[in-house]
Design brief:
Radius of gyration: 19 Å
CATH class of the largest domain: Alpha Beta
Order of helices and strands: EHHEEEHEHEEEHEHEHEHHE
CATH architecture of the largest domain: 3-Layer(aba) Sandwich
Number of domains: 2
Distance between the termini: 14 Å
Helix content: 25-40%
Structural class: alpha/beta
CATH superfamily of the largest domain: Periplasmic binding protein-like II
Shape: elongated
Number of strands: 12
Amino acid sequence: MSVRIGARGVALRAVCLLAGGALALTGCTKNTEDNAPTAEKIQVAKVDAIAAKLPDKVKQSGKLVVGVNIPYQPNEYKDASGQIVGYDVDLMNAVAQVLGVRAEYQESDFEKIIPAIQAGTYDTGMSSMTDTKEREQTVDFVDYYNAGIQWAQQKGKPIDPNNACGKRVAVQRTTIEETEDVPNKSKACEAAGKPKIEAVAFDEQSAATTALVLGQVDAMSADSPVTAYAIKQNQDKIESAGPLFESQPYGWPVPKGAPLAPVLQEAVQHLIDSGEYRQIAENWGVQEGAITKATINGAVG
């Protein structure tokens, strides 16, 4: 999956897109987008019975301080006005409404979010962070979504991810898709005496998607919600290819043993049961990873 498995690392830089197979400057992508869903934001009612269980610190401040690393469309990024938006944002805002508080987002380097939570600077983190056994040694996770690796292809031009030998595949730089998924599939090709897969890496996911839409690559490998959103935005151009690989949960980290974890879990479960969770996921086109039961520390493997 994405570099959310580890540090997303370097700050994402604007990248100039390939055009017509040549390195032509056609304008650069930015860390903002102006094509966020236009559906009316879901307004969620406070649930007093759940809100009453909030830790005193959060109750008294009236806010949930959330560390976030951007951009990572469609989960968390800035729109054209500079506002932090995304699937994760809408879901966290809904949870905050259930709890009768507001979510206050503070930008951070990805690798600094967990240390800041441990230090008490943030109450939780929201950055498409994969819940892993290793991370569970230092923080607890409230799991709210299942993500995996999902390939995409141009409409009507089928690609088998397990037999993409000789094909060009777009990936976002430093992600698991670049470092593990495509290389491992390429090694299998070479072991079978077939041409290797050429990974075409971009600094921005939007650039990787554009390359596929324009036919500059044969396929794209990305986190499943990222691929789902790209397809939603380009339904006449691209479609999913092959199965979902290596599904694992996204989670919100909180301090180890913190009383906030079961409260967040209960709030997410309330949204699942009410159908509002599903509405939010469908608004962003990422419903395939929607869960039916909120859990704590549900890392796979």
